[in-house]
Amino acid sequence: MSEGQPNWLLNGGIGSGKSLVRKVFEDHGLSTIDADSVGHEVLRPGGPGVAAVAEAWPQVLVDGEVDRKRLGAVVFAEPSQLARLEGITHPHIFSLIEENLSRLAPPVVVEIPLLVQPFPGNWHRIVVDAPDDVRLERAIARGLEREQVLRRMASQPSRQKWLAAADLVIPNNGTVEDLELAVSGIVALIRG
User: Fold this and answer.
1) What does the radius of gyration of the chain's CA atoms come to, in whole angstroms?
2) When you count CB atoms within 10 A of the terminal residue's CB, does the N or C end of the chain come out lower?
3) pLDDT digits (tens, 9 = 90+) for 91-140
4) Are the CB atoms for 68 and 43 separated by under 8 Å?
């Protein structure tokens, strides 16, 4: 692989289908990292973010562990609380992702629901796009309550902001098969 080959940020709002797209990339042999899974590591018992989260929101601890559902209810209800959580967890998440990146040859696809580009090097952005009503239905189907989903959508960049930041857009308002076909079609482009 060429030395300057880019890595890819995989973005999109809640319910857009980022995780399914990442899985299809994995099925095609691309290296991927899921920032949400890394975030779970940061908040697991003994994780680097647990003590600060416990100090900031003691009510989210259950049997000494961070209850992510309770934490989500607190931070997605108030933008300042979400910013506070991100200030605690993002440095740890970014650091762990960079450690993983150092062990993988490009191209690597990092699924991360942020518009910022937190990693050094050559990066491009793929945005998985779906209309807001479709995203809402998908997130509810995954077990979230309507109001929870709407709060999370409001805390994320708008669809227009995601699209404006994209180097590539993968539309996801059809079937799973349509999405898999679209993703398969760009694997060669990502590999460079």
Assistant:
1) 17
2) N
3) 999 999 999 999 998 999 999 989 888 898 889 999 999 999 999 999 99
4) yes
